[in-house]
Every structure is written in C-alpha cells, then in structure tokens.
Design brief:
Elements: E1 2-3, E2 6-9, H1 13-20, E3 28-34, E4 62-63, E5 68-72, E6 77-81, E7 85-103, E8 106-128, E9 134-139
Parallel strand pairs: 1-8
Antiparallel strand pairs: 2-8, 3-4, 3-7, 5-6, 6-9, 7-8
C-alpha cells in the first residue's frame, strides 16, 4: 500500500536544516510511524514530544535513503529530498509518519506526514513516497 500524505514542517525545521546543511551526511535521518495517540503540533521539537510510536507487527523505524539537502540561493529555500520509504510485510495501523534527525546531540523533529486518517496494513507492504523525491521545501538562511 502506497500512502499519500501532506508533509508539514515542525517549527524548528529551518534551524535544523541550516545547522546540518554543511555537514548533512554525518547526520542520520529516520522515519517513524505513529498511531492517532500522537497529535502533531508545530511547536514539537524533540523525540520526547512524540507519542504512540508503532510497536510490533514487523515494524521498525526506517533510515531515509538517497537523502539530500539543497539550499537555493536565489529563492532562499532549503529543499529536502529522499527516496521512497518501504516497510515490507508489516501488520499495523498508522496515522502519522514523523521525519527526524538523529544528530546534533539529540533527536530533532523535522516534519510530519499526515496519512489522511488511520491506515491499516495486514501482512502487506507499506510505502511512503515523495513527489519527485521532494519531501519538504522551506524558506531559510543558508
């Protein structure tokens, strides 16, 4: 099952992207899935703000692959890109996906993906893709 979704930046997204822009490859980026117990808020900043991460059913956090951060001088925008995330043969119900940086001494929240309601998967493959591999574009200072 491929899930569409709206991506929303947490309030510190520009700060985080500007901090890791020069040394991006050294930081780890992951995607976690959460139940409806979690209620996203742009003021959330760290993993301690998260609730309801999926457990069991073959689920594990996934590292983003093919990731890239680009700063466009002309538009003053950061572009954050990565390839599709796939969880093969899982059984779970997820409402949100959360993208976070595991670096800078803590786990920093970058964005959440609204899956458009609770999505159930039974012993099937779940994937989240990004249009043209673009996850997020935010204005900032490089």
């Amino acid at each position: 099952m491929a899930l569409p979704g709206q991506v929303v930046a947490y309030g510190r997204a520009v700060e985080i992207l500007s901090q890791v822009y020069a040394d991006y490859d050294a930081d780890s980026v992951s995607v976690s899935l959460h139940s409806s117990v979690y209620v996203p808020n742009t003021s959330h900043a760290f993993s301690s703000d998260l609730r309801g991460e999926i457990a069991g059913g073959g689920y594990a956090r996934k590292k983003l692959q093919g990731r890239e951060v680009v700063f466009d001088e002309a538009t003053q925008r950061f572009q954050f890109k990565a390839t599709r995330v796939v969880w093969p043969l899982v059984t779970l119900t997820a409402r949100w996906a959360v993208i976070s940086f595991d670096g800078l001494g803590t786990t920093n929240l970058l964005a959440w993906v609204d899956l458009g309601g609770a999505r159930q998967v039974f012993n099937s493959t779940l994937s989240i893709g990004w249009e043209n591999d673009m996850i997020l574009e935010v204005e900032g200072v490089g």
